[in-house]
Write a structure and sequence with these properties.
Distance between the termini: 8 Å
Radius of gyration: 12 Å
Shape: globular
Strand order of the largest sheet: 1-3-2
């Protein structure tokens, strides 16, 4: 089931940090922390060249449970 909010592509570390709520002590997106979390595989994302991309469903899938594609069918 396609959801326009959960399945909209998110491209770039800054936008992924915003979507995943990875922020520094000032509330600004923490791109460095997001980059290392993506590299370590803590978030479900793909890398095309130098650009990271994902969707809100993929980023928050472990926390959404019943809204993930695997469980929706």
């Amino acid at each position: 089931m396609f959801d326009p909010i959960l399945d909209k592509p998110i491209r770039g570390v800054r936008d992924i940090a915003i979507a995943a709520n990875i922020v520094d002590e000032n509330g600004e997106p923490d791109e460095r922390a997001a980059y290392y979390a993506l590299e370590a595989g803590h978030y479900d994302a793909s890398k095309r060249g130098r650009i990271w991309e994902s969707t809100l469903r993929r980023l928050l899938g472990p926390h959404l449970g019943h809204l993930t594609k695997q469980n929706a069918a």
